[in-house]
Specification:
The chain is α+β, with helices and mostly antiparallel strands. Among the domains are: 66 residues; 105 residues, GAF domain (Beta-Lactamase); 134 residues, Heat Shock Protein 90, CATH 3.30.565.10. 55% of the residues lie in helices and 18% in strands. It is built from 14 helices and 17 strands. The strands form three sheets. Strands 5, 6, 7, 8, 10, 11 and 12 form a seven-stranded antiparallel β-sheet that branches. Strand 16 and strand 17 form a beta hairpin. The longest helix has 67 residues. The protein is rod-shaped and about 200 Å long. The chain starts with a helix and ends with a strand. 27% of the residues are buried.
């Protein structure tokens, strides 16, 4: 009884049955034992028959043994061999089936891997959908496939086994794509459960590829938007506000700051914003301000306090840095995680950008590489803005020098000449009254001409509030005042819509000023007409007079009065902003000046 459980265990648990000897071992054992066993059995039977002592009985005994037992033994032996052969054939069939399944599974796995690789290499969302549809047909063996995603985008593909029968005769299989959309497959025969499972796995991979393509597209759109918004921006505060605002919005940060390196290599807070508001320039309070040397040493003597130590670390680093906890609070009081991005170019450190977030580890999964590219764009924009400011300072200095030179060479000499004439009049007043009176008239004429010249200069140099009135109203006021000041008929005609950036408006108005100033000084015109045409892509300013005209090639480098811009400088300013400048004139035929500027 103690052996019973052991004998029942294999029956109760078939997978745990004791291993049997291989078929080849059993055949070899039977081959070795069967011949001697047969000899022994035959010998024993013959001995038993010989003991019968009766010939009749011996005959029947021989017939019974060799006629029945021998064939029976032979039958069971052959049956046993046949059973072994059938078992071997079944094993071979099972092995072939398993090999076929493994081959099919390997092919599908390889197809999925190829699909994942192709999805990763697709340049845009449309290409991702086409690649995904072709991959689904290739992997599942469908006749054709259609992939749709939210937004109206879709991709289709057809296989080589597409039947000539209509689609209604095919068997559809539709699976949902995670995140939205669907993958619709058509088969010649009803798809099985494994095919449906495979299609669902493909839909998951497609969702990953679609999201990656969307992310790449969003990154490119963000970079393009930043590039367009800061390309021509010359105001440093607006520039830094746009750049940091776009970066903060991209990762959901609530605080941002920009520290720029000055001409002495000292970092200074230039712009910052958090929940408490906006800070522009050093010494405004709020976000940690102050300055730090390019060697990383904080400076307490600078306005605004001390630049955070983390800013100095970022300034010395070659790439982005992240700080959390107490160090983050030193940068932004309410932040628990801060990302620092150095702004560098071939000339050295330009500044440091900071993004802060109240969440711990907020930037661990952020797209730091994209933010680093945006910081690189900001670096170029800051360099351009500084170069523009420097050029403006040079232009102002140059114009002041021109004003001083023209006053010295024009008004001052004319006044000195008038003073000499009056001295002559004083000496001739009694000796030659007639000549003295003529000298007085000559001096009076000279003084009146110089008064008109001074008034023209003052009119050309007076400040104009573009931000207050806008370009069109400022132009209207200026053209009206110009006619009254110069005793000249003036008119303004405005058509279309005008949308220019503040910087472009200033340049366009400066062109108008210089054009009218040149007309007042050189044209000897009786009428001037100004037109402003706002087209769909550009704004056209045209200034036309009926004066003496001139040869543009002969006076290309001429500088106007009041330290104004010459023709070359006006053309260069327009071309620097993507505009065009043209002069149409000839002697005795008047002058037309045209300035074109792209719409914002």
């Amino acid at each position: 009884m103690t052996d019973a459980p052991a004998t029942r265990t294999p029956l109760a648990r078939p997978p745990a049955a004791p291993p049997r000897a291989p078929l080849s071992d059993r055949v070899r054992l039977v081959r070795n034992l069967l011949p001697p066993l047969i000899v022994l059995v035959v010998g024993a039977v013959e001995l038993a028959i010989s003991l019968l002592g009766n010939g009749q009985r011996e005959l029947w005994a021989h017939l019974l043994f060799y006629g029945l037992v021998g064939p029976a033994v032979t039958f069971f032996s052959v049956e046993w061999i046949a059973e072994g052969t059938r078992a071997r054939e079944r094993a071979e069939r099972e092995l072939r089936d398993l090999y076929g399944q493994l081959s099919a599974s390997h092919g599908r796995l390889q197809g999925v891997q190829e699909l994942m690789r192709d999805l990763g290499g697709a340049p845009d969302l449309g290409a991702v959908l086409e690649v995904a549809a072709r991959g689904a047909v290739r992997v599942t063996g469908a006749t054709h496939a259609t992939l749709t995603v939210p937004g109206g985008l879709s991709g289709t593909a057809r296989g080589e086994t597409l039947l000539s029968a209509p689609s209604a005769a095919l068997h559809p299989l539709k699976v949902s794509v995670p995140g939205g959309g669907a993958l619709l497959l058509h088969f010649e025969t009803p798809p099985g459960a494994d095919t449906a499972e495979l299609a669902q796995a493909l839909a998951a991979e497609v969702a990953t590829g679609v999201e990656a393509a969307r992310q790449r597209t969003l990154d490119l759109m963000t970079l393009y938007s930043v590039d367009q918004s800061i390309r021509a921006e010359r105001n440093m505060r607006r520039l830094l506000s746009r750049v940091t605002g776009t970066m903060a919005g991209r990762v959901g940060a609530e605080a941002r700051a920009a520290y720029l390196s000055d001409e002495d290599g000292v970092l200074r807070l230039e712009y910052a914003q958090d929940r408490r508001g906006e800070v522009s320039g050093v010494g405004s309070g709020g976000v940690g301000g102050g300055s730090v040397g390019s060697d990383g040493a904080s400076r307490d003597d600078a306005p605004g306090g001390v630049v955070p130590a983390f800013a100095a670390q970022v300034a010395q680093a070659s790439g982005p840095l992240i700080v959390t906890g107490a160090e983050a609070c030193q940068v932004f009081p309410e932040a628990r995680s801060v990302l620092g991005l150095p702004m560098r170019d071939e000339e050295g450190l330009v500044g440091v950008l900071m993004l802060g977030d109240p969440r711990e580890g907020a930037f661990e999964a952020a797209r730091v590489s994209l933010l680093a590219l945006m910081a690189g764009q900001a670096t170029l924009a800051v360099r351009n803005a500084r170069a523009y400011l420097y050029s403006e300072e040079l232009a102002i200095s140059d114009e002041r020098a021109r004003i001083a030179r023209e006053i010295h060479d024009g008004v001052a000499q004319s006044l000195a000449f008038a003073a000499l004439k009056l001295d002559v009049v004083a000496r001739q007043m009694h000796s030659d009254p007639a000549r003295a009176e003529a000298e007085v008239r000559s001096a009076t004429t000279l003084l009146r001409e110089q008064i008109r010249e001074v008034r023209r200069s003052i009119f050309a140099l007076r400040p104009i509030d573009l931000e207050r009135y806008g370009l069109l109203e400022t132009v209207r006021r200026y053209v009206l005042d110009f006619g009254e000041q110069n005793n000249m008929r003036s008119s303004l005609d405005v058509t279309g819509e005008v949308h220019l950036s503040p910087g472009d408006e200033a340049v366009m108005f400066r062109i108008l000023q210089e054009s009218l100033n040149n007309i007042a000084k050189h044209a000897r015109a009786g009428e001037v007409r100004v037109t402003v045409d706002g087209g769909p892509y550009q704004v056209l300013l045209r200034v036309r007079d009926d004066g003496a005209g001139f040869d543009p090639q002969a006076v290309t480098g001429r500088v106007s009065s009041a330290g104004g811009l010459g023709l070359v400088q006006m053309r260069e300013r327009l071309q620097a902003r993507g505009g065009q400048y043209r002069i149409l004139s000839a002697p005795a035929q008047g002058t037309t000046i045209e300035a074109q500027m792209p719409q914002a």
